[in-house]
Amino acid sequence: MRMPEIVLKPGEELEGFVVRAAAPLPGLQAVAYEIEHAGTGARLLHVHSADAENLFAIAFKTPPADDTGVPHILEHSVLAGSAKFPVKDPFVEMLKMSMATFINAMTYGDKTVYPVSSNVRQDFYNLAEVYCDAVFHPTLAPETFKQEGHHLEFLRKGDRASELIVKGIVYNEMKGAYSSAEGLLARYCEQGLFPDTLYGKDSGGDPHCIPDLSYPDFKRFHRALYHPSNAYIFIYGDIPTREHLAFLRDKLGAFKRRKIKAEIQRQPRWSEPRCRCEAYPIGRNEPTGEKAYLTLHWLVGDGADALDVMGWSILDYILLGNEAAPLKKALIDSKLGADLSFSGFNSGQLETTFHLGLKGGEAGRQEAFLKLVLETLQKIADGGITPEMVAAAFQQAAYHNLEIQPLYPLRLMMRSYATWLYGADPLSLLRAGELLAELRRRYEAEPALFGRLIRERLLDNPHRLLLVLAPDRELQAKQEAEFAGRMEKQKSRLDHRALAKIVKEQEKLEELQSRPNSPEALATLPQLKVQDLPPRPKHIPTTVEKLDGKVDLLRNDVFANGVNYLELDINLEGLPDELYAYLPLYGDCIRKMGAAGLNYLQVAERVAANTGGIGFGSAIGTHAAEPRRCLRRARFTLKTLDEKIAPALDILRDLFFEPDFRDTARLKDVLLQAKAWHRSSLVERGVELATLHASRGLSAEAALAEALGGAPQMRLIGKLAGQYGLLQPDLAAKLEAIRAFIRNRKRLTASFTGSNSAYEEVRRRLGAWVKELNADAIQDQPSSFKPLEAPLREGLAAPANVAFCTQVLPAPHRSHPDAPLLQVAGRMLSLGYIWDEVRIKGGAYGGGCGYDGSRRAWYFFSYRDPWINRTLQIFDGLTTHVRQAEWTQAEIDRAIIGTAKNGERPIRPSEATGQALWRHVAGETIEFRERQHTAILCATPREIKRAMLEQLEANSSGSSVCVFASREKLENANKENAEAPLAVQDLTLEQS
Ligand SMILES: [Zn+2]
């Protein structure tokens, strides 16, 4: 990429703005302008580069005064209609019909950010226009507050005898967030470390406090803070600065400068460390052993001090960055827990923090944990940091600085806001290369620098919190009973008239939610036309070379800024079915065990010193043109800098050819860490687990996908960990069998993105490896898969106070001529019928549907949902909905634009390496992609309806259902719906 020239001078005035500073950012191939709006003091930063992905973001400081979640509810609500765009949900309308590469909004502890980005210039300004009007002139109707925030309803609509419940999208989103142990841990930690400042409040909203927020307070919060004098506008990309200023001129022109009260205070420092014990809910019948979280937290520094932030990032990596890092190793070796949790340095706010945690421990062992941490830190500070460790840490930071990752503009925005909002230079963290060089100079002048940091900020720092989170079997039921009691009490205080009012308001809200936007209102939104879209999707420029062992080596011509990416694809066809379930563990071993005569610590040190990471994963799908051709693949991934390519390839070779599973003690640790991960990620993965479970009868691929990542995988890990002594020999034999199986050159395809010199090295090395591999013919293995005789209705019971409902239908393969139409239909229903019914009316945090032509399935889901039967009925009502729908071409066009944008996404080097490889092995040729793209652009309402109905009528009777929720919730749902109950099973890692 070429760097633009500086064209604006400090002091220059244009369009009502004054240029304050202009500076080159050579590390980003960009120049930056700091600009102020003269009338209001609104601050603007434009990072001008040659990148066609332009980003516009506006942020406000939004310090919360309590836990009612007002910043978060406001974040949802301003996007629900504004003066210029009086539709119900401009956000979702733009989501439907823009080419946005990113569109969302985020609430942080102290700020709220509204970013959008696009590759298409007109689209970029359309999005920025809608966002500016949303933040400065939102409608904020009382109904929006009720829908997004909270309101009262009767459990059974209109039935005043039924229970009173609280509904609201943010309310359910936060109930879900408070369901996971790690979510609670984050909450208690912030509350504990910052008891006297806004960081101790929950800007997202504590579900217990959300109902206390009043509509007038909500409006007042907006009036006070959403003003240009409190705005920080970040713009990135290749559009010239002047055009942005001309665009913003009248957006800000109507406002007068105002004094904003949004100070972010510092936490008074403690003179003594503190301690706190809290509980989190687990299943009624689950054992409590090995489920506690033992954690330590420190307030360590100043977020606006970029050099200090960078120093801590380096120290973080030295202490915890790899399997051999001394603090990580000591924590794992202590057996006080199975794996780290919630650990590392945290910045991006006024005061920075450092965290250490172990999951899978025992409550009551916190003193031993504290002693271990302090003693280990002391040892490390007293000479435990070698120059090699520091060099490896600097190298890791360099990746962070150089890499052009997906969502690159958004990452730059976050780095800028991290200092800017606290009065510091917005460019300081964007100059990471210079910061690292300065830090290196300081380290060379003071080799004990990091030891001193440990002593001063951790060991001798009394602002330290010891926090224990213990499992509690009764808590879920207790909280539910408490809530029911509270609601009953509230109901008893309401008279006849007040109860009638709730019914009326509920009806009114639903009536509003059901009323579609008028075509006139929709026409106010700026929209692209289908003719404006590029006629062809973007392709990755890839060339293919055959190595002499007949292995394809792909080279992708994508700018990679000095980082090199290599992926090795392995065809798993013929791998015995029972070995698939061991692939995830095989991947863990690649990342965590020894190889080629080196133990795991030596391997970890080599990986840290020479690469940006080595990974191993697997994927299941089908060929683009041949529905019967199953694609079962494994993948090695490697990232490295130019000067490290040779040693990096040496390590990859060792891990590919000679991984070593013989260290049985280490293998057990790896297994326990996998178990701890499954436990802690359980609730977050609710939709995924339920979908995999409901799909497993559809095809051999779907069954394998569940074996790899679903409930059976969890149970396998639980069993292996529980009976390790007995099962270890068999486990080692299975891992060995996978190792032997993949060492076959006929299975290998490679893909590379990076520099010429690195490519030559890759070519040479791969050519040599190919000669070492065997060349056995690939043989098909008869599959043990048996299709289901009848569709399933099932429930997976786990401790979660919200539900995740899924339904899966068989669908045609992506080579079917209707496949592009079904993609458009999926997008339309996802943001239409399902969004309206499940999210808007149902109050679930999310919901959607999608067509997956590779797996031959239709998926419907709800996310953090208060309902079960209601949502399943919505899924069942789809055929009727489609039959009655009278879509216009304008509606279809919006969905076409939203679908076609996938082909326009920016091509970033790491994604390109993997995607090019998948397209190559899956037969997604340029012609195939262009054919699909053209078919998407030509979709008509009639054709979409026909394709949908054909599928629904043929396949609805074959749909399977699975709901992930607490046992209590599932059993209650079954009581309400006795004719078609869900077969409930507990989802647990324990052995019964
Ligand atoms: Zn939210």
Give your account of this protein's structure.
This protein is an alpha+beta fold and 992 residues long. Helices cover 45% and strands 19% of the residues. Helix 1 packs across helix 7 (215-225) and helix 31 (878-884) runs antiparallel to helix 35. The model has no long low-confidence stretch (mean pLDDT 94).
Relevant terms:
alpha+beta; six-stranded mixed β-sheet; binds zinc ion
Any chance you could write out the topology, listing elements then pairs?
Layout: E1 13-14, E2 17-25, E3 30-37, E4 43-49, E5 54-61, H1 70-78, H2 90-97, E6 102-103, E7 106-107, E8 111-118, H3 121-136, H4 142-149, E9 151-154, E10 164-167, H5 169-177, H6 181-193, H7 215-225, E11 231-237, H8 241-253, E12 274-281, E13 292-302, H9 306-320, H10 326-333, E14 339-340, E15 344-346, E16 351-361, H11 366-381, H12 387-402, H13 408-420, H14 432-445, H15 449-459, E17 464-472, H16 475-492, H17 496-514, H18 519-523, E18 542-546, E19 552-556, E20 563-571, H19 577-580, H20 583-592, E21 594-595, H21 600-610, E22 614-622, E23 630-641, H22 645-657, E24 659-660, H23 664-681, H24 686-695, H25 700-709, H26 711-722, H27 724-742, E25 748-753, H28 756-772, E26 793-797, E27 804-810, H29 819-841, E28 846-852, E29 857-863, H30 869-876, H31 878-884, H32 889-900, H33 909-922, H34 926-937, H35 941-955, E30 960-965, H36 967-976, E31 983-986
Parallel strand pairs: 4-11, 12-17, 19-25, 26-30, 26-31
Antiparallel strand pairs: 1-2, 2-3, 3-4, 5-8, 5-11, 6-8, 7-8, 9-10, 13-16, 13-17, 14-16, 15-16, 18-19, 20-23, 20-25, 21-24, 22-23, 27-29, 27-30, 28-29
Helix pairs in contact: 1-4, 1-7, 2-32, 9-12, 9-14, 10-11, 11-15, 12-14, 12-21, 20-23, 21-22, 22-28, 23-26, 24-25, 25-26, 26-27, 29-32, 29-34, 29-35, 31-35
This protein binds zinc ion (ZN).
